[in-house]
């Protein structure tokens, strides 16, 4: 066997292996201890989206000034996030105070992460079917 051909085959296999790997990204979402309910829901929806993509999420509560005296609000907030997302995530690292930030890391559950290829197939099936607007436009040309 030719050595050049052998090297080419090895490179081809390595490239295919890299293509099939899924790199897990670590996304982050910052909360404040006195967050309003709507803002909390908005940020939690974004975290849910990150988990559905298959990314890990670092959720942290940032304290400033005298808020450091009441870190229990941060623990309650992170507990609330955990309960909201318990259907699609598990806690990898429990809440831990690091300086002025109280952080925890959430992992997506395996069945919760939706592969991107599956979504593309669904979109392709939707595009095959004509919409009502297209049918009207075709009739007007006659």
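Sequence proposed for the structure above (142 residues):
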């Amino acid at each position: 066997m030719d050595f050049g051909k052998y090297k080419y085959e090895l490179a081809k296999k390595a490239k295919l292996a890299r293509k099939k790997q899924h790199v897990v990204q670590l996304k982050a979402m910052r909360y404040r201890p006195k967050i309003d309910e709507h803002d909390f829901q908005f940020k939690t929806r974004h975290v849910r989206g990150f988990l559905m993509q298959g990314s890990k999420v670092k959720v942290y509560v940032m304290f400033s000034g005298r808020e450091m005296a009441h870190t229990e609000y941060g623990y309650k907030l992170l507990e609330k996030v955990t309960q909201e997302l318990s259907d699609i995530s598990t806690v990898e690292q429990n809440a831990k105070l690091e300086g002025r930030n109280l952080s925890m890391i959430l992992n997506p559950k395996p069945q919760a992460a939706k592969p991107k290829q599956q979504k593309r197939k669904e979109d392709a099936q939707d595009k095959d079917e004509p919409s009502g607007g297209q049918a009207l436009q075709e009739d007007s040309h006659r």
